Amino acid sequence: MAPDRVPVRVGVTGHINLTPATERLVADALRVELRRTSDRPVHGVTCLAAGTDQIFARAVLDSGGTYEVILPARDYRDTIRPASRADFDELLNRATQVIHTGYRTSGTAAYVAANRELLLRVQRLLAVWDGEPGCHAASTDRTVTLARARGIPTTVLWPANSRRASREP
Prior knowledge:
By secondary structure, this protein is of the alpha/beta class.
């Protein structure tokens, strides 16, 4: 493959709970940023969480790119709300590669491991982040901080009028 056609590897981190209006704003912002990021094809890297990660996977596909998925734990699918599993399954099946962290059960340690693996595989990071500090070691802010410490170019996206949704029980 010619060097100018080698895909640029772009990872994503971001909020899970977004309002429906914000999901549309984020989808548009990600599509614009993916076009702006490079004149080369995009190969995304995502953990395929609800919200940002799944919106990113669809934006990558819309741009003609491909993506790989890093699953934090073997039981990760079980953590997805039943109403969202069909979307998760469809996007997982479209991945060019699925990487497992080795954790059996989902939780902060597995999510941190997945975020670290993601950062090992990317040249750029897109972060859908409202700028607020997170509440655990796998939060968006921690991933952004680690990416910047590693010298990974990081773009934070939080479109005007974006809002996080309240968490469902």
